[in-house]
Amino acid sequence: MVLFAAARQGRKDDAELGNGVWRRAHDRFRRGLDRFHQMLEGIEDRDVHAGVVPTANALADLLPRVRALCTAAQTRAPSASMDIPASAGGYLNDVHRELTRAGNALATAAEAVALVRLNAGPIAAVERRASTVHRHVDEAERLLDR
Fold first, then answer.
1. Angle at which helices 21-41 and 46-60 cross, to 10°
2. pTM for the whole structure
3. CA proximity to 104, closest of 39, 32, 21
């Protein structure tokens, strides 16, 4: 049953996100979010875990926004390759840049969780990096809406 659900989701992703830069930006963000939660699951200290959960939830709430951004961008400038169509206008390059930065910032937030998990870093570092993710998603939305 899981195999069929994954196939259906893959077809839906192909239809909404295409197979180019917008799909890649979305998938990068989703993988970073998955990694963040994997690191979170490994925290054994209940208090520390509870301290990171609100940040994890706030980051998870960004995924539908990132998907909506990528879907809208794919609608405006369909991409089937690793290039943003030149006819799309320069602002979509900026949108893509912000989405890429959000995915990269999410990966560094997951890294910060790994350090917290090893008692080698503070929770504040996770929160700082998560706020960077939020800023990049907000900026991508602003750029797309203008």
1. 160
2. 0.90
3. 32
